[in-house]
From TrEMBL:
Pfam families: SUFBD_core, SufBD_N. Residues 211-443 form the SUF system FeS cluster assembly SufBD core domain. This is Fe-S cluster assembly protein SufB. It comes from Fervidicoccus fontis. Belongs to the iron-sulfur cluster assembly SufBD family. Residues 48-205 form the SUF system FeS cluster assembly SufBD N-terminal domain. It comes from the Archaea. GO terms for biological process: iron-sulfur cluster assembly.
Length: 474
């Protein structure tokens, strides 16, 4: 693999074997931990100096968390004990607007991720969250000139309360399930982005989330509002070093795409192999708007992620691509949801999963066409590639069609690597890992041609790196 390709991987998907700088210590950080109860939630809110309305929302979510049952679809998290983790970890650093103002030990982490270079080269804006707080926010002049608002979520709560109250937890309500309620009760960090009417941002903005400690919970909340006829691309990156014990991620993304707007949201997740990952993601699309999701899941021990779009408006559009790799004893429970309410809406779901070395992939999909959503068309395809006898893939699609003029299609395919093809490629001088990576890339081809070139290059490189580890295993 060329150094250019390796740099592309470092740029968006740092290695889960990432090491913290020598001498790094979080011993001086402000930490809130203990049983999840009213006093703990109040302490988090007090530490953030929040307005009363946000505290009330947190406490309502806490009541729902205590009332709701543990989801019966969640497995593989037996080690998880919510009451033993740190729910809020504030590093000894304020919000910086220049690299020089970030404490040296934290700055070295981000330099090792190559993120300062990425900001200069490719991004209109970038936010870095370390533990539970945003420590750096870089916004280029372009965003300021176009009056785009990009702030840490806590600052948006203080400065733009009317806008935040209109959307926060309205797109993905806390009462949907126990982990959504837990997130709302404990949320900290994340990004608020508002794109004014008619504004189109040619370069993407990025938020990067990093957990440095074991037995830590990260609960960032991202809220993205695209006003009428605006356009933006948002990239979310996630990473963490290896720990001796687990850490827990329970984030949320809410997107509101107003009439005629276009939003593209890309997640490239490479948590280390002892992170338990939940992510609650939903968008609402109004008339003639378009929402595109790309969920690339490589790391973590266990992941539960289902990007979803509510096609509320007439002629609204969505596409949801999920690429999930379970290489080793990992469980990826991913999928997508489309709920159509408007007329002449259209949606597409494309799921690609690769299971190797005992990995498990599960697809859960929901397509719901409500009565009155006339002439709506939704297609979904779920393709699984299994590389050995120890790995497996399961598919659970669910379609609810209440409108007779709608057209819904679903197809699913599961395949294995041909031993004949593998033998042929190895006879031409390729290692087993190289041969398998080429076959996997062929399997992903129809996804790679439909996503931005830069993202396709990264996924291409990630696959090559991931399967170069296979070596002589079967």
């Amino acid at each position: 693999m060329t150094e250019e390709k390796r740099e592309a991987i470092r740029r968006f998907l740092p290695s889960p074997e990432l090491k913290l700088p020598e001498g790094f210590s979080s011993s001086g950080y402000f930490i809130i931990k203990g049983k999840v109860e009213k006093s703990l939630v109040e302490e988090i809110s007090r530490a953030k100096n929040e307005p009363e309305w946000m505290l009330k929302l947190r406490l309502k979510a806490l009541e729902a968390y205590e009332r709701l049952r543990f989801p019966n679809w969640v497995v593989g998290v037996e080690e998880l004990n919510i009451d033993e983790i740190a729910h809020y970890v504030r590093p000894d650093a304020g919000l910086a607007r220049s690299w020089e103002d970030i404490p040296e030990d934290i700055r070295k982490v981000y330099e090792s991720l190559r993120l300062p270079e990425a900001e200069k080269r490719a991004l209109a804006g970038i936010s870095f969250q370390f533990e539970s707080e945003t420590v750096y926010l870089g916004i280029k002049k372009l965003l300021e000139e176009k009056k785009v608002i990009m702030l840490p979520m806590e600052e948006a709560v203080q400065r733009y309360p009317d806008i935040v109250k209109q959307y926060f937890n309205k797109i993905f309500p806390y009462a949907e399930h126990k982990f959504a309620a837990l997130h709302t009760a404990l949320w900290s960090g994340g990004v608020f982005v508002y794109v004014p009417k008619g504004v189109r941002i040619p370069q993407p903005v990025e938020a990067f989330f990093f957990m440095a400690s074991a037995l830590e919970g990260q609960f960032e909340h991202t809220l993205l509002i695209a006003d009428e006829n605006s356009e933006i691309q948002f990239i979310e990156g996630c990473s963490a070093p290896m720990y001796k014990r687990y850490s827990f991620h329970d984030g949320m993304v809410e997107i509101y795409a107003h009439r005629g707007s276009k939003v593209k949201f890309v997640t490239l997740q490479n948590w280390s192999g002892n992170v338990i990952n939940f992510n609650n993601k939903r968008a609402i699309a109004e008339d003639n708007s378009t929402v595109q999701w790309l969920e690339g899941s490589v790391g973590s021990r266990v992941s539960y992620v289902y990007p979803s779009t509510i096609l509320r408006g007439d002629n609204s559009r969505t596409s949801i691509y999920t690429v999930s790799i379970s290489n080793g004893k990992k469980l990826k429970d991913t999928g997508a949801k489309i709920i159509a309410l408007g007329k002449n809406a259209a949606g597409k779901i494309v799921s690609k999963s690769i299971s190797a070395n005992g990995g498990t992939n599960i697809y859960r999909g929901l397509v719901r066409i409500s009565k009155g959503s006339m002439n709506t068309v939704v297609s979904s395809s779920c393709d699984s590639l299994i590389l050995d006898r120890e790995s497996k893939s399961l598919t659970y699609p669910h379609n609810q069609i209440e409108e007779e003029t709608a057209s819904v299609s679903h197809e699913a395919k599961t395949g294995t690597i041909s031993e004949e093809h593998l033998f042929y490629m190895r006879s031409r001088g390729l290692t087993e890992g190289e041969a398998k990576s080429l076959m996997v890339l062929g399997f992903l081809e129809d996804v790679l041609v439909d996503i931005p070139f830069e993202m396709a290059s990264v996924l291409n490189s990630v696959v090559q790196l991931e399967f170069s580890k296979i070596g002589g295993t079967g």
